[in-house]
Amino acid sequence: MKDNLYSFHLAIPVYDLAGCASFYENLFACSRGRSSNDWIDLNFFNHQLVLHKAQANSEDTAVNFVDGDNIPVPHFGVILDYDAFSAVIKNANQQSIDFLIEPRIRFKDEAGEQMTMFFRDPSNNVIEIKAFKNRSNIFAS
Questions:
Q1: What is the DSSP letter of 45?
Q2: What's the domain range around 95?
Q3: What's the distance, CA 72 to chain centroid?
Q4: What is the pTM of this model?
C-alpha cells in the first residue's frame, strides 16, 4: 500500500448546498459527480468530496497553536505543487475570499517547510491548502 496512490472520501456538512457547490467549483475547478437534493459529489483534486445538506451553522472550532498560528480544528485540504498553490491564491483574491490565515511559509528551513493558507467555505468548513518545498518531506519527522 505504501507506494500506491489512493483517493480519499470526505463528507462535510453544508448549509447552502448550491452556494457551497459553486464555491468549490469556482475556486478549485471541481467537477460534479452524482448528486441528489441533499448531497453533491465533487472531484476535489481527484478525491471524492461530498457536500451534505445540514441544518445547523456554527463557526465554533477548536484551535491548536502551530508555528505561530492558531490552527482551526477540524479542517481539511490538499497538498499541491507551488504553481497550483499560487493559482488558488489568485482565484481566492479574484473572488474576494477572506483568508483565515494568509498564505505564508511554515517551518522555514526545516524538513517540513511548506506554503500554507486557510479559509472557510460558505458553510464555515475550514480548508487548508499546502505546498511543500520538498514533496518527499511530507511525512518527514
A1: S
A2: 9-54+67-137
A3: 12
A4: 0.86
